[in-house]
Amino acid sequence: MGKRVLIAYASKYGSTAEIAERIGQALREAGLQADVLPAEKAADVAGYDAVVLGSAVYAGSWRKEAVEFLESHENVMAKRPTWFFSSGPTGEGDPVQMMKGWRFPEAQKPIADRIRPNDIAFFHGDIEMKKLNFAEKLIVKGLKAPVGDFRDWAAVSAWAKGIADALK
Ligand SMILES: Cc1cc2nc3c(=O)[nH]c(=O)nc-3n(C[C@H](O)[C@H](O)[C@H](O)COP(=O)(O)O)c2cc1C
Fold first, then answer.
1. Ligand 1 in contact with 19 (CB < 6 A)?
2. Most distant CA pair in the chain: distance in Å?
3. What domains, with CATH codes, occur in the chain?
4. Where are the alpha helices (DSSP H) in 15-63?
5. Is the pLDDT of residue 1 over 90?
6. CA-proximal residue: ligand 1, atom 23 (nearest)
7. Is the full-model pTM beyond 0.90?
8. Ligand 1 binding pocket includes 148 (Cβ within 6 Å)
9. Closest to 56 in 3D by CA, of 71, 46, 67
């Protein structure tokens, strides 16, 4: 049997959940066992050989479920191969450049430094106006953020393939 990988995610409107599912699918195709779970539902983290943790980004921060997962499972992740990803930027271009060098939430950098992940990815996201609440709509309009689904499935699959290769 292939190694067991946990893909834990935090998603408000579902687009990050779908990125996590795509990573899980790519890992399974590469012969690994992958469980894809909302971060707050993931249990027995120590029972996995590797961990992938991802979150949607809102106002420069990870969602609280991902932050809590990081804080609760720091010690296990520090002893396992670990990968982090964030999803957010809409529009064309390199996500890190679009977000002025942002790659990982500032508040969680000390924990990430202790865990020493194999890689940290930043993927394009999806903004659907009809899903947003009033305040979020105002923010998106104020920032003139492009609306629509800009998720880059090729980038997600390529990153997942790198995880599979590292675990073989
Ligand atoms: C109010 C609001 C604030 C956002 N702030 C950021 C941000 O600071 N950085 C970023 O990269 N994306 C930001 N985004 C884009 C979201 O991260 C993107 O829509 C993401 O795909 C949402 O994922 P989810 O569907 O899993 O919740 C923001 C979106 C909204 C609606």
1. no
2. 50
3. 4-167 (3.40.50.360)
4. 15-29
5. no
6. 56
7. yes
8. no
9. 67
